[in-house]
Amino acid sequence: MATPSSGTSRRLVQYVIVRSDLIHTLSWPLGAVITQACHAATAAIHLHYSDPETQEYLAELDSMHKVVLQAPDEASLNTLSSALREKDIAHKLWMEQPENIPTCLALKPYPKETVQPFLKKFKLFK
């Protein structure tokens, strides 16, 4: 776990990565896609609720910082999830039920510099 440098504060960020093809190719309604991101973010917080970084993030309720990125398709989202799992980066891959379709994933809150190397190829969601 990353720790802050003495005397400096760090910004914890929760990243959410959403499949952009759900809107642009599969014609899902925007509201349905936003709902998927909300589910994933909530689930990641719930699963890692006792984590010290999650608690620190939640303690600053009015200044939480999230970044929503886009993955082009299901394969890229699954590849990212596998890479994060291999590096022990805590996250939740959200599966829409009952179809069992991966729609997005959310990381628990991390210092940006801890997870940025895994996310640099993903652009802000549009």
Automatic annotation (TrEMBL):
Q: Which reaction does it catalyse?
A: an N-acyl-L-alpha-aminoacyl-tRNA + H2O = an N-acyl-L-amino acid + a tRNA + H(+)
> Which terms in the Gene Ontology molecular function aspect does this entry carry?
peptidyl-tRNA hydrolase activity
Q: Which UniProt keywords apply?
A: Hydrolase
Its Enzyme Commission number(s) read: 3.1.1.29
Under Gene3D superfamilies, the record lists: Bit1
Q: Does the keyword Lyase apply?
A: no
SUPFAM superfamilies registered for this protein in UniProt: Peptidyl-tRNA hydrolase II (SSF102462)
The record's section on PANTHER family has: PEPTIDYL-TRNA HYDROLASE PTRHD1-RELATED
This chain's protein is named: peptidyl-tRNA hydrolase
This protein's species is: Carassius auratus (Goldfish)
